Amino acid sequence: MSSETTRRLALDFASQLAPAGSVDVRRFFCGSALVRNGAQFGFVMKGTLYLRVDDAMRAEFEADGSEPFSYRAAGREVTVRRYYAVPAHVVDDPALLHAYSERALHATPRPATDSPTRSRP
Predict the structure, then answer these.
(1) Tell me, what's the pLDDT at 114?
(2) DSSP label at 121?
(3) Closest to 83 in 3D by CA, of 69, 97, 99
(4) Residues in domain TfoX N-terminal (predicted)?
């Protein structure tokens, strides 16, 4: 799948997940990241939507037969258990997809913010 096709798919998911403009789609390795308020809560890679999971979501996704994101590097398989493929029945149900994306966002650590500048004596 081309990077442009992946980006279009990510933009489509972003438009389903939240009001226009509230989910940014950014380049992410060979895919596209879904980012809201500076937090990456999901991505599209090779035509598959992955969302950030907490323990409860992981158990639900595994019960649905979903797999964690994985890739090959230096001749070995690397599994990233923080992100799981979204089950087909969730992708096909806009309300459920929105609910899962909100849960994924809550499972995502917030980016660090700059600390306030201290005044010097």
Answers:
(1) 52
(2) -
(3) 69
(4) 16-107
